[in-house]
Amino acid sequence: MSTVSRTIAICLLCTGAILADNYYVSLSGSDDSAGTSREQPFRSISRGLAAMQAGDTLNIAPGEYYGDNAFNFPASPDKTTTIRGEIPGTVLIRGDQAPPQFSPVAGLQFVWAGDWDLPVESVNECNNLEIYVQSASVEALENKRAAWFHDQDNKKLYVVTSDAEAPDRHFLRVSVNRNFGLLLRPADSAVGLCNIIIENLTFIGFNCNENGGIPGRNGRWGLYLSGGEKCIIRNCQAYLNGSGIGYSRSNNSVIEDCVAMGNGSHFCGSGGNIICFGPAKNSVIRNCLTYKSSQNGIRFYGGLAENCLIENCISWDQVKGDIWIKPAGINSRTRNNVCLGGLHSKLPETDVCRYNGYNPNDPTMLVLTKNKLDLRENLADIDNMDYRPQGDSKISGGLPDQKNVFFISPEGKDENDGRSLRSPWRTLQNLKDNTTVYLLPGEYPPDQEVSASKVTLRKRGSTGPVIFRGGGTGLTVKGQEVKLEGLSFCGNAQAGLRLLGRNCEVSRCGFAAAPVAILAEPASWQNAQDQAQSPGDRLRAGLVEITLNHNAFAASLQQPLSLGGAAAVVRDNIFAGALSGLAQSGVLLFNNAYAAAEPPAGDDKAFSIRPEFRNPDQGDFTLVNHWQFDGRASDLRPIGPYNRLTSQRPTKIFGPNIHSVTSSTVNVEWWTSSDGVSSELAWGEDEKCRQKAGDAYSAGCYHNVSLTGLEPGKKYFFRVDSRQPAFEFHTNLDLAAEDLLKPRERVSSEVLTVTTAGSQTEAQQYFV
Q1: Most buried residue, 101, 108, 361, 611, by most Cβ within 10 Å?
Q2: How far apart are CA 247 and CA 362, in angstroms?
Q3: What are the residues facing 158 on neighbouring strands?
Q4: What are the pLDDT digits (tens) for 583-605?
Q5: CA–CA separation, 599 and 618 (whole Å)
Q6: What is the DSSP string of 291-353?
Q7: How far is CA 393 from CA 174, 364, 387, in A?
Q8: How confident is the model at residue 697 (pLDDT cuts 50, 70, 90)?
Q9: Which helix (H) or strand (E) holds 588?
Q10: How do strand 455-459 and strand 726-731 relate by DSSP bridges?
């Protein structure tokens, strides 16, 4: 155990477990209730916080809770206080609202407007994790992308989307709350904020359209602790806030197993996704994932960081840097992290990064800009952000080989060692406990068993389905804590999947053409104590036995689920047909999409959307209407199965248009659908347009070029050529294998002509 981990463990173990109260919050409750039982809960989180004393526990039931929460907490060095969501991923604390109905604005090409009489702190494009920028006027929106303007006098909200498409092609939300999702400060500065555990909470859409001051370093955060002595933030999520999850002055504290995406505000340049502001001591950020911020990813920043650690984190696509310890601090280090951009660490250890600004030549790192070998051929699965080495990898540096990654292929052999793409297994018979197993796209024999425990079976890459077709049952899971990700089951005579092991998670899978998609037999794992509780009581106590999220259940299924009384969370799935087996005790339905006009009872966040799958009965669950599902999940990914793709967003050219013409000049203007598009004018005296004009690397969406020195009365030809940079997004679509290596494609307008004026216009003289 490292010095940092040992210090934190001792500190937390020394915290006394003293008798304390439990408080409960539920959307079915009342703030006039006692709040001391699940039968009499409070209605609001703020009421629950106000009731707490040091050592108490606040249990929050699933649901969407609107409003900010700030509390000066009377902490104690001798008592541990807990604020927790009862079921991970189902307690959403929101500062945003659904947008108005938008209509195009007359006289403008790209701007839409809707009636709006609430404040506007930001507008968020959830499907692309994009926070729009504020515009100075309606007219200025025409030459922007991903921007908004609020006319407070006329109560109108104006927007232009990230790709100039209509707003209903995206999933927009409007941030209306300029406070914190949860802000904790010490009631007694002498005691400080100490011994607090916060877990299983999700924060979405808290922002401020101006400098917010202190606390929070001028920004508004999803979750922020002002000070933190022996505190833990665990399994929390933050999306599209001014900044995500943060501490100031952390000591012996931890942030672990958290996700933060799309958080950032130009008013809080030192913020971003997950930040600990210094001074900090003996603190750890571990097993966290951050993606896409206009600011920073994961960092200790400002003041001295002493004996601090960032480890086992994944971070990419932050503008200012992915992982930082700034300043370098005393004995503060990074270990086993993956960041596709900048790492700033004086003491790195087996990290993966594009570059290290503080220690560029550490031999234990894998520096992506220096690597000359094929990453896909040597590492586990870079499309799923798994940079662990294959068994025969020739790449040196980076994450250590713990011999726990294996591969299966339809062309493999079970006599192989299974440790690389060159030596995959054929079936599941060799599975080992505590491993990750990647299945290459293709079709696999049905009626196989998963007997190992704590194993993840995952589709490798994003280039095609992994199908278990036919037979009696696609797969039978007998192991405990098994995860299945990205698999397809179709044409099975009895069931697609049979679960005989506790604590299984099924994610991003598809089911079709079977009597039942998932058949669970909890009697095979439950003991007498389990069976003495009802499924509903087990679920409310957080004893989740099955988790089903981001799956697709086709209309050809006779029944999607038969869970046998297991306590299950069914979240962010698509149900295209039968609904039998869903509304039962012990099953929490949360934020699913249904083709049926009337969703089943109990799913208060349900969407009614009819999916258009490409060919589900043959294992292809690609959605033709994927845009209707993108960004709508409770974790802001698509509802149903999805891939993480890095591809080219389709580029559109609007124009070109002739702005003005003289006998020797032509002024041309055009727009592109997105910012960041390389765009230039090709022109000449014939259709080949051999000459180039303009800035080929212009970063905006509005472009104009003036051609001068032309001949009077002459015909000229011109077109616009554009190239779109790679754009990462989560969507249901699969890529063809050749798309992974596709260069940036050129998109061209049609060739147009213009004739200059026949003679020089006589100069005019004006007087003022």
Answers
A1: 611
A2: 29
A3: 113, 149
A4: 888 999 999 999 998 999 889 89
A5: 26
A6: EEESSEEEEEESS-EES-EEES-EEEEESSEEEEEES--BS-EEES-EESSEEE-SSEES-EE
A7: 47, 15, 11
A8: low
A9: strand 587-590
A10: unpaired
Give Rg (Cα) of the chain: 28
Preceding peptide of 656 cis, ω within 30°: yes
Give the three-class secondary structure for 609.
Answer: coil
Predicted local distance difference test score (pLDDT) of residue 18:
47
For residue 727, give the nearest of 71, 128, 80 by alpha carbon: 128
CA distance 597 to 42: 32
Structure token digits, residue 68: 């900010």
The number of C-alpha atoms within 13 Å of 319 and in the hemisphere containing its C-beta is: 13
> CB of 702 within 8 A of CB of 669?
yes
* Torsional sign, CA 460, 201, 272, 9: negative
Name the strands in the sheet holding 702-707, side by side, starting at the edge strand that comes first in the sequence: 653-661, 666-672, 702-707
Give the phi and the psi of residue 629 in degrees, each rounded to 5: -110, -20
CA 570 – CA 626 distance, rounded (Å): 20
Given a contact cutoff of 8 angstroms between Cβ atoms, the answer to whether 334 and 310 are in contact is yes
Output the DSSP codes for 465-476: -EEEESSSEEEE
pLDDT of residue 732: 57
Strands (E), 424-545: 435-439, 442-444, 448-450, 455-459, 466-469, 473-477, 483-485, 487-490, 495-499, 504-507, 510-512, 516-520
Q: Which residues contact 683 (CB under 8 A, 6 or more apart)?
A: 689, 691, 692, 693, 707, 716, 717, 718, 719
| d(C-alpha 297, C-alpha 263), whole Å | 9
Q: What is the pLDDT of residues 22-75, one digit of tens each?
A: 999 999 999 999 999 999 999 999 999 999 999 999 999 999 999 999 999 999
And the tokens for 666? Answer: 């032509």
